[in-house]
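Hi there,

I know you've been waiting on this one. I reran it after we fixed the sequence typo, so this is the corrected version. Both the input and the resulting structure follow.
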Amino acid sequence: MSKPARASRLKERVAAGLKRRYRRERGFELAGLGALLVGLLFLAFFFFTLIGDGYKAFRQTVILLDIELPVAEFEVEGLSPQEALEQADYLVMVRDALRARFPEVTERGSLRELFALVSISSSFALRDRVLADPSLVGGSIGLPVFADDDVDMLIKGNLDRDAPVTGRRLTDQQLGWIEVLEAEGRVELAFNKGFFTQGDSRDPEMAGIWGASVGSFYMLLVTLVLSFPLGVAAAIYLEEFAPRNRWTDFIEVNINNLAAVPSVIFGLLGLALFINWFGLPRSAPLVGGLVLTLMTLPVVIISARAALTSVPPSIREAAMGVGASKMQIITHHVLPLAMPGMLTGTIIGMARALGESAPLLMIGMVAFIVDTPASPLDPATALPVQIYLWADSPERAFVERTSAAILMLLLFLLLMNASAILLRRHFERRW
């Protein structure tokens, strides 16, 4: 075969090989793009369903009632006027308003169904209104009160009005009363302020995230106060002072391993150490903060060491050249330059701690807590645990609360990550 023929065949083989390689590269690129699109579709579906259910919890069905406040209900022998206002039977007054609107309802079973249209929280709303303005006693007021969670689901379209009686939780008689109230303009959707200002409740229309949010705040406060100084101090010692030997290598390996330990293990450790041994109260934010500190500390140490390592050696050498001591080099030069990375790692670790529920379940923070904690020693729950409790509830209305609480948790996490980026940009120094 002549030399030109061999050269021609060689060029053809090279060209064919290049085509195959480019084809494979395009296939790999399309596969990566397809994986990205699939991930985005799942993420979009997740947020679509989450927001679709969650935004409804920010509005609550209310029923406008004309409530009489007879003086006789507030005259109790042996009680002062203020005590009589506080201890009056406001639920009876609300039910009397319903009975006055539907006077034809007289049977006990029918009255029970009629009273079930409004939430028991209506008595608290009426009580707060009267205590704020005692001059209302003796007259009547128009007061919007929360409807029962089944009525709320019906008004929001989550229950089918045309479904058989066996397939819905409202009777035909209750549907008729609701339609009458709707025709009179007494049923409407209002902003659910109680979702942000109230604690947990077994009744969905009364449940809120404030108690869980305060519990999460106390836990994160304890975690930050303990994990940040301890983590930074440990990182400085390991990176700047500790000799390189088997002992420090053993410590470093264990720190890296602890960062990958499942969070439930830290919960078991906290149960055995802080509750069973030290006798600290169960379901307290202090114990939750200590457990989250154990979980967050390895992350803070690793990120702080990485930030210290990123400081150029020339900074240390220049400070040493002008006569600075080891401590002055660290506190005046190295630490300020490494602080952005340390803050970023700490905030990311805190964001991870905010979303943890498994270790908190181990120390008893799964308990049903209605009151808002006033200190880190009071019984409390946390936002992730609150979401877990609501997701396990059988009532349909808790689905909305669960989705809305997840949205609020995601918002907090987004704010924490955004603050980490802003702090890094604010303190970062370029050289």
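Quick highlight: The mean pLDDT is 86.

Best,
R. S.
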